[in-house]
From TrEMBL:
This is dTDP-glucose 4,6-dehydratase. Its EC number is 4.2.1.46. Belongs to the NAD(P)-dependent epimerase/dehydratase family. dTDP-glucose dehydratase subfamily. The keyword Phosphoprotein does not apply. The gene is rfbB. It catalyses: dTDP-alpha-D-glucose = dTDP-4-dehydro-6-deoxy-alpha-D-glucose + H2O.
Length: 336
């Protein structure tokens, strides 16, 4: 099977590539036997893409890397040809950056997805896996979203992802293309660009610095280790039904304050290292996914308990300063 992974040099895409090629960041147990003969990574290497994320699989003869933009129709047409499956991760992914400037989000997330879908349609790709986020639903006070929940995105990031989700589903309904969607909760783990809350806090704490906590710290997120996200995507790639959306979540909801307490403890630091900062504009209060569908249809369950996953993650950042130190200068634009 020839698999094209867009955004495969980013945080989650690179874990997917490592997993496909047999060097995952978590246990290989429970990973479906998707056996690739070729894994092509198409990645623009924006600020968050990094070839270092693929260093452990660099010498695998099945890996091909193409540096390029998913918005470039000529290149995309050339690269998509000959692949059986496209797994689409490439995106502008940071909410705070989308508040500062939405343009690249609309371009990459909407136009880029449409460019890929068109090429996949032209070349008769057998399956297109579109990777999305719980943020497309907005914010929920109580209960959990099911896959049928109406979309109500509230940030330019989530609005652009919702646009790409609707396009992907439209290609299924209009053209009969085999498209499957995943929507996942907040990921943490190794190789995450240190602008997102977990690696930002961990690397600041390891450097003896402070960490900025938004607002009252009461915003709730459901946390999932990146490896468990990728296991879920592989199951959907393998056995998901065409035209369907599958939620992938961890079932471990924490307020940002609770997450901060765990990270402080894991790094051996106290609350004096926390600096409250003004809340993010339009900050969604709570995200919560119902994951019954992927559990019952595909037998998915997260495998890495949060405390274990956070401990492993802190250890990874402690042991891999050479990976993140160059990424901390100049300072990332904001936290989140
Ligand atoms: N991080 C999370 O918690 C999370 C949760 C749910 C869903 N997602 C989704 O998962 C996907 C991957 O997220 P991530 O956290 O790994 O993001 P990331 O920012 O770490 O990686 C994105 C990758 O896409 C590449 N890229 C960006 N624009 C491109 C373009 N125009 N052409 C080609 N490549 C381009 C970047 O170079 C980078 O390698 C995204 O679609 C995101 O919406 C992320």
């Amino acid at each position: 099977m020839r698999i094209l992974v867009t955004g495969g040099a980013g945080f989650i895409g690179s874990e997917y590539v490592r997993m496909l090629l047999g060097v995952p960041g978590g246990d290989a147990v429970g990973v479906p036997a998707v056996e690739p003969s070729v894994v092509t990574v198409l990645d623009k290497l924006t600020y968050s893409g990094n070839l270092g994320n693929l260093a452990v699989v660099r010498d695998d003869p099945r890996l091909r890397f193409v540096r390029g933009d998913i918005c470039d129709p000529v290149l995309v047409d050339e690269v998509v040809a000959g692949h059986d499956v496209v797994v689409h991760f490439a995106a502008e992914s940071h909410v705070d950056r989308s508040i500062v400037g939405a343009g690249p989000f609309v371009t990459t997330n909407v136009l880029g997805t449409q460019t890929l879908l068109d090429a996949a349609l032209r070349h008769g790709v057998a399956r297109f896996v579109h990777v999305s986020t719980d943020e497309v639903y907005g914010s929920i006070e109580q209960g959990s979203w099911t896959e049928e929940w109406p979309l109500s995105p509230r940030s330019p990031y989530s609005a652009s992802k919702a646009g790409s989700d609707l396009l992907a589903l439209a290609y299924h309904r209009t053209h009969g293309m085999d498209v499957v969607l995943t929507r996942c909760s907040n990921n943490y783990g190794p190789y995450q660009f240190p602008e997102k809350v977990v690696p930002l806090f961990v690397t600041n704490l390891l450097d003896g610095g402070t960490v900025p906590l938004y607002g009252d710290g009461g915003n709730v997120r459901d946390w999932l280790h990146v490896h468990d996200h990728c296991r879920g995507i592989a199951m959907v790639q393998d056995k998901g039904r065409a035209g369907e959306v599958y939620h992938i979540g961890g079932g471990t909801e924490l307020t940002n304050k609770e997450l901060t307490a765990r990270l402080l403890e894991a790094c051996g630091a106290g609350w004096e290292r926390v600096v409250p900062v003004a809340d993010r504009k339009g900050h969604d209060r709570r995200y919560s996914l119902n994951i019954d569908k992927i559990k019952t249809e595909l037998g998915y369950a997260p495998s890495i308990p949060l405390d274990d996953g956070l401990a492993r993650t802190v250890r990874w950042y402690r042991d891999n300063r050479a990976w993140w130190e160059p990424l901390k200068t100049p300072a990332p634009v904001a936290v989140g």
